[in-house]
Write a structure and sequence with these properties.
37% of the residues lie in helices and 21% in strands. By secondary structure, it is of the alpha/beta class. It has a single domain, classed as Vaccinia Virus protein VP39 (Rossmann fold).
Protein backbone atom coordinates (compact mmCIF):
# COMPACT_ATOMS: atom_id res chain seq x y z
CA UNK A 1 0.00 0.00 0.00
CA UNK A 2 1.46 3.33 -1.06
CA UNK A 3 1.54 6.16 1.50
CA UNK A 4 -0.93 9.02 0.93
CA UNK A 5 0.43 11.91 -1.10
CA UNK A 6 0.91 15.31 0.56
CA UNK A 7 0.15 17.42 -2.51
CA UNK A 8 -2.71 17.23 -4.97
CA UNK A 9 -0.92 16.58 -8.28
CA UNK A 10 -3.83 17.63 -10.47
CA UNK A 11 -4.36 20.86 -8.53
CA UNK A 12 -0.64 21.61 -8.69
CA UNK A 13 -0.63 21.28 -12.48
CA UNK A 14 -3.78 23.39 -12.74
CA UNK A 15 -2.36 26.14 -10.54
CA UNK A 16 0.82 26.29 -12.62
CA UNK A 17 -1.20 26.47 -15.83
CA UNK A 18 -3.33 29.29 -14.41
CA UNK A 19 -0.24 31.17 -13.22
CA UNK A 20 1.56 30.95 -16.57
CA UNK A 21 -0.02 33.91 -18.46
CA UNK A 22 0.70 36.54 -15.79
CA UNK A 23 3.67 34.92 -14.11
CA UNK A 24 6.03 37.79 -14.95
CA UNK A 25 4.10 39.99 -12.50
CA UNK A 26 4.68 37.57 -9.62
CA UNK A 27 8.04 35.95 -10.37
CA UNK A 28 10.17 37.93 -7.89
CA UNK A 29 10.83 34.97 -5.58
CA UNK A 30 11.80 32.69 -8.44
CA UNK A 31 13.87 35.49 -10.00
CA UNK A 32 15.88 35.71 -6.77
CA UNK A 33 16.37 31.94 -6.77
CA UNK A 34 17.47 31.94 -10.42
CA UNK A 35 19.99 34.71 -9.81
CA UNK A 36 21.46 32.86 -6.84
CA UNK A 37 21.69 29.59 -8.78
CA UNK A 38 23.49 31.29 -11.66
CA UNK A 39 25.91 32.90 -9.20
CA UNK A 40 26.70 29.46 -7.81
CA UNK A 41 27.08 28.01 -11.29
CA UNK A 42 29.51 30.76 -12.27
CA UNK A 43 31.79 29.66 -9.42
CA UNK A 44 32.19 26.21 -11.00
CA UNK A 45 35.27 26.14 -13.21
CA UNK A 46 34.17 23.61 -15.79
CA UNK A 47 31.97 23.50 -18.86
CA UNK A 48 28.55 21.84 -19.13
CA UNK A 49 26.97 20.70 -22.39
CA UNK A 50 23.59 19.13 -21.63
CA UNK A 51 21.35 20.65 -18.97
CA UNK A 52 17.89 19.93 -17.59
CA UNK A 53 15.82 22.84 -16.28
CA UNK A 54 13.49 21.08 -13.84
CA UNK A 55 10.44 23.26 -13.23
CA UNK A 56 11.20 25.70 -16.01
CA UNK A 57 8.24 28.08 -15.36
CA UNK A 58 8.87 31.19 -17.51
CA UNK A 59 12.02 29.72 -19.05
CA UNK A 60 14.33 32.44 -17.71
CA UNK A 61 16.80 29.96 -16.24
CA UNK A 62 16.79 27.85 -19.40
CA UNK A 63 17.55 30.93 -21.50
CA UNK A 64 20.43 31.89 -19.22
CA UNK A 65 21.93 28.42 -19.59
CA UNK A 66 21.52 28.52 -23.37
CA UNK A 67 23.34 31.86 -23.38
CA UNK A 68 26.22 30.02 -21.71
CA UNK A 69 26.36 27.61 -24.66
CA UNK A 70 24.41 24.66 -23.23
CA UNK A 71 21.79 22.45 -24.82
CA UNK A 72 18.82 22.74 -22.45
CA UNK A 73 15.85 20.44 -21.94
CA UNK A 74 12.98 22.26 -20.23
CA UNK A 75 10.44 20.39 -18.11
CA UNK A 76 7.55 21.41 -15.90
CA UNK A 77 4.52 19.87 -14.22
CA UNK A 78 2.32 22.47 -15.89
CA UNK A 79 1.54 22.06 -19.59
CA UNK A 80 1.64 25.81 -20.32
CA UNK A 81 4.99 26.28 -18.61
CA UNK A 82 6.43 23.15 -20.23
CA UNK A 83 5.48 24.42 -23.68
CA UNK A 84 7.45 22.48 -26.27
CA UNK A 85 9.53 20.90 -23.51
CA UNK A 86 8.67 17.89 -21.37
CA UNK A 87 5.61 17.90 -19.12
CA UNK A 88 6.24 15.72 -16.08
CA UNK A 89 6.06 15.79 -12.32
CA UNK A 90 9.48 16.24 -10.75
CA UNK A 91 9.29 12.88 -8.99
CA UNK A 92 8.35 11.03 -12.22
CA UNK A 93 11.22 11.88 -14.56
CA UNK A 94 11.14 10.20 -18.00
CA UNK A 95 14.83 10.71 -18.79
CA UNK A 96 17.29 7.82 -19.27
CA UNK A 97 20.27 7.44 -16.93
CA UNK A 98 23.25 9.73 -17.58
CA UNK A 99 21.32 12.08 -19.86
CA UNK A 100 22.69 15.37 -18.47
CA UNK A 101 25.82 16.82 -16.96
CA UNK A 102 23.85 19.59 -15.23
CA UNK A 103 20.40 19.66 -13.61
CA UNK A 104 19.02 22.92 -12.23
CA UNK A 105 15.72 23.50 -10.46
CA UNK A 106 14.29 26.84 -9.31
CA UNK A 107 11.31 27.20 -7.00
CA UNK A 108 9.46 23.88 -7.29
CA UNK A 109 10.99 21.21 -5.04
CA UNK A 110 9.21 22.42 -1.90
CA UNK A 111 5.89 21.11 -3.28
CA UNK A 112 7.00 17.73 -4.66
CA UNK A 113 5.30 14.67 -3.18
CA UNK A 114 8.38 12.46 -3.19
CA UNK A 115 11.42 14.70 -2.80
CA UNK A 116 13.83 11.87 -1.87
CA UNK A 117 12.68 10.03 -5.01
CA UNK A 118 13.14 13.18 -7.08
CA UNK A 119 16.72 13.58 -5.89
CA UNK A 120 17.52 9.93 -6.57
CA UNK A 121 16.10 10.23 -10.09
CA UNK A 122 18.09 13.42 -10.69
CA UNK A 123 21.29 11.74 -9.57
CA UNK A 124 20.62 8.83 -11.94
CA UNK A 125 19.86 11.21 -14.81
CA UNK A 126 23.25 12.89 -14.32
CA UNK A 127 26.40 11.71 -15.97
CA UNK A 128 29.31 10.84 -13.65
CA UNK A 129 30.63 14.05 -12.08
CA UNK A 130 27.46 15.88 -13.13
CA UNK A 131 26.19 18.80 -11.07
CA UNK A 132 22.80 19.27 -9.38
CA UNK A 133 21.74 22.78 -8.32
CA UNK A 134 18.36 23.61 -6.79
CA UNK A 135 16.70 26.41 -4.86
CA UNK A 136 13.26 26.63 -3.28
CA UNK A 137 11.28 28.31 -0.51
CA UNK A 138 12.24 26.60 2.73
CA UNK A 139 11.45 26.38 6.43
CA UNK A 140 11.10 29.69 8.23
CA UNK A 141 9.18 31.29 5.36
CA UNK A 142 5.84 33.09 5.68
CA UNK A 143 5.99 33.14 9.48
CA UNK A 144 3.42 35.92 9.85
CA UNK A 145 0.97 34.39 7.38
CA UNK A 146 1.13 30.98 9.06
CA UNK A 147 0.45 32.46 12.49
CA UNK A 148 -2.32 34.77 11.28
CA UNK A 149 -4.14 32.03 9.34
CA UNK A 150 -4.01 29.72 12.34
CA UNK A 151 -5.39 32.44 14.62
CA UNK A 152 -8.21 33.21 12.17
CA UNK A 153 -9.18 29.53 11.95
CA UNK A 154 -9.07 29.13 15.73
CA UNK A 155 -11.30 32.20 16.20
CA UNK A 156 -13.84 30.74 13.76
CA UNK A 157 -14.21 27.73 16.04
CA UNK A 158 -14.45 25.17 13.21
CA UNK A 159 -11.96 22.61 11.97
CA UNK A 160 -8.43 23.93 11.64
CA UNK A 161 -6.92 23.00 8.26
CA UNK A 162 -3.27 23.23 7.36
CA UNK A 163 -3.21 26.09 4.90
CA UNK A 164 0.56 26.42 4.36
CA UNK A 165 2.43 23.21 3.63
CA UNK A 166 5.42 22.02 5.66
CA UNK A 167 8.76 23.27 4.36
CA UNK A 168 12.27 21.82 4.31
CA UNK A 169 15.08 23.31 6.37
CA UNK A 170 18.76 23.53 5.43
CA UNK A 171 19.88 20.57 7.51
CA UNK A 172 17.23 18.28 6.05
CA UNK A 173 18.13 19.46 2.53
CA UNK A 174 21.75 18.44 3.05
CA UNK A 175 20.75 15.08 4.51
CA UNK A 176 18.44 14.37 1.58
CA UNK A 177 21.22 15.05 -0.92
CA UNK A 178 23.52 12.60 0.84
CA UNK A 179 20.82 9.94 1.11
CA UNK A 180 20.16 10.28 -2.63
CA UNK A 181 23.79 9.40 -3.40
CA UNK A 182 25.20 12.84 -4.14
CA UNK A 183 28.72 13.73 -3.03
CA UNK A 184 30.48 16.99 -2.22
CA UNK A 185 27.12 18.29 -1.05
CA UNK A 186 26.34 21.80 0.20
CA UNK A 187 23.07 23.18 1.57
CA UNK A 188 22.68 26.84 2.49
CA UNK A 189 20.01 29.53 2.69
CA UNK A 190 19.41 33.20 2.00
CA UNK A 191 16.53 35.38 3.28
CA UNK A 192 14.30 37.44 1.02
CA UNK A 193 12.17 40.06 2.82
CA UNK A 194 9.19 41.57 1.03
CA UNK A 195 7.07 44.49 2.28
CA UNK A 196 3.29 44.42 2.04
CA UNK A 197 0.64 47.06 2.64
CA UNK A 198 -2.15 44.53 3.16
CA UNK A 199 -2.41 40.74 3.59
CA UNK A 200 -4.47 40.23 0.47
CA UNK A 201 -1.63 41.38 -1.78
CA UNK A 202 0.57 38.73 -0.17
CA UNK A 203 -2.05 36.08 -0.87
CA UNK A 204 -2.46 37.37 -4.44
CA UNK A 205 1.30 37.07 -4.94
CA UNK A 206 1.21 33.44 -3.78
CA UNK A 207 -1.63 32.67 -6.20
CA UNK A 208 0.22 34.45 -9.01
CA UNK A 209 3.29 32.30 -8.35
CA UNK A 210 1.17 29.14 -8.46
CA UNK A 211 2.10 28.66 -4.79
CA UNK A 212 -1.30 28.79 -3.10
CA UNK A 213 -2.39 25.84 -0.95
CA UNK A 214 -1.69 22.59 -2.82
CA UNK A 215 -2.22 20.16 0.06
CA UNK A 216 -4.39 17.15 -0.70
CA UNK A 217 -7.73 17.07 1.09
CA UNK A 218 -7.74 20.74 2.13
CA UNK A 219 -11.15 22.09 1.16
CA UNK A 220 -12.15 24.52 3.99
CA UNK A 221 -12.41 27.98 2.36
CA UNK A 222 -11.35 31.28 3.87
CA UNK A 223 -14.69 32.76 4.93
CA UNK A 224 -15.42 36.48 5.32
CA UNK A 225 -14.94 36.17 9.06
CA UNK A 226 -11.53 34.57 8.62
CA UNK A 227 -10.48 37.22 6.11
CA UNK A 228 -11.61 39.97 8.47
CA UNK A 229 -9.56 38.39 11.27
CA UNK A 230 -6.59 38.26 8.91
CA UNK A 231 -6.92 41.97 8.14
CA UNK A 232 -7.16 42.81 11.84
CA UNK A 233 -4.05 40.76 12.58
CA UNK A 234 -2.19 42.52 9.79
CA UNK A 235 -3.10 45.96 11.14
CA UNK A 236 -1.86 44.97 14.59
CA UNK A 237 1.44 43.63 13.21
CA UNK A 238 2.26 46.33 10.65
CA UNK A 239 4.90 48.97 11.30
CA UNK A 240 4.36 52.73 11.61
CA UNK A 241 4.25 53.02 7.83
CA UNK A 242 1.37 50.53 7.67
CA UNK A 243 3.51 47.87 6.03
CA UNK A 244 4.54 44.40 7.16
CA UNK A 245 7.66 42.55 6.03
CA UNK A 246 7.16 38.89 5.28
CA UNK A 247 10.18 36.64 4.83
CA UNK A 248 10.86 33.99 2.22
CA UNK A 249 13.74 31.78 3.36
CA UNK A 250 15.41 30.48 0.20
CA UNK A 251 17.13 27.11 0.58
CA UNK A 252 19.77 26.00 -1.93
CA UNK A 253 21.13 22.52 -2.63
CA UNK A 254 24.36 21.65 -4.43
CA UNK A 255 25.51 18.11 -5.10
CA UNK A 256 27.61 16.14 -7.54
CA UNK A 257 26.96 12.74 -9.05
CA UNK A 258 29.83 10.44 -8.10
CA UNK A 259 32.66 10.40 -10.62
CA UNK A 260 36.09 8.78 -10.91
CA UNK A 261 38.03 12.05 -11.03
CA UNK A 262 36.51 13.68 -7.94
CA UNK A 263 38.53 14.30 -4.76
CA UNK A 264 38.27 11.28 -2.46
CA UNK A 265 38.66 11.10 1.31
CA UNK A 266 41.87 9.49 2.53
CA UNK A 267 41.70 5.80 3.42
CA UNK A 268 40.99 5.26 7.09
CA UNK A 269 44.23 4.69 9.00
CA UNK A 270 46.46 6.14 6.26
CA UNK A 271 47.47 9.27 8.20
CA UNK A 272 51.20 9.76 8.79
CA UNK A 273 50.86 12.34 11.57
CA UNK A 274 49.10 12.16 14.91
CA UNK A 275 46.37 14.73 15.60
CA UNK A 276 47.02 14.37 19.35
CA UNK A 277 50.71 15.10 18.83
CA UNK A 278 49.92 18.16 16.70
CA UNK A 279 47.60 19.51 19.38
CA UNK A 280 50.23 18.97 22.08
CA UNK A 281 52.78 20.81 19.97
CA UNK A 282 50.48 23.82 19.83
Amino acid sequence: MEPPEIFNRGLRRLRRDRAAPGFANYSFVRDAIVEALLDRLDLVKRDFADALDLGTADGSLARALEARGMRVTASDAGARFAGEGVQCDEDCLPFPPESFDLIVSAGVLDSVNDLPGTLIQCRRALKPDGLFLAGFVGAGSLAWLRKALLAADQAAGDAIPQRVHPLIDVRAAGDLLTRAGFVLTVADSEPLDVGYGDPFRLMADLRGMGAANLLAGQTLPLTRGRLAALATSFAASAGPDGRLHERFELVFMTGWAPGPDQPQPARRGSATASLAAALRAK
